[in-house]
Amino acid sequence: MTTADYVALALFVLLWVALNWITSSTRFFNRPSLSLAMNERRREWIYNSLRRDLKMIDTQILSGLQNGTGFFASTSIFAIGSCFALLGATDKVNAFFSDMPFVFNGGRGAFEIKVAGLAGLFGYAFFKFGWAYRLFNYCTILFGSLPMREDAELDPLRAERAAERVIRMNVIAARNFNAGLRAIFLSIGYLGWFLSPYVFMVTTMFIIIVLIRRQFFSDARLAIMDIDMS
To answer: Which key words tag this protein in UniProt (predicted)?
Structure first.
């Protein structure tokens, strides 16, 4: 491990933390992120459901959210297993990298540290996806406690409190899901470290720029924004 390796790793962590912060709790160039805008759409969805007696569509949406989260949780587990398999073949892989031109080979110890870090990244993603899966399950239960349309009209304050509980739980679950998904995306940039710390810095910056563009400057964001919010 060289000084450049430590600098690249510190830059990776710093940009990761900054990305989580600006996409979850602040504005960027006075623009709300795609994630924050979607929170408003979640609110609209739940309040609309109060005006429906038949909520099969809503339960299907909740099931889709939970199934998607479960898919990524399973994928993270497979990725962790692949990292441990890679550790078992350290000598072969390290020899392969040693023969490649323009690749900085730090030796067996550095390679194992990098693989362990990659496994830790996928482990973080798994815990985020696992917690999001459980929270979406809780959200389904809270959604089942919403009053029927007639009851909501008779007691709107009670209906509003019940809806706010569902919304808060759904937003928290989505926040954890998004954190896990960002870790998966950033793992692509992390792979650059196996070539050299300088490639690591470049790939990290590239992934961060792509994710910021998607959150603040993408067509997907414009598609869900109100005119006065864009």
So the answer is: Membrane, Transmembrane, Transmembrane helix
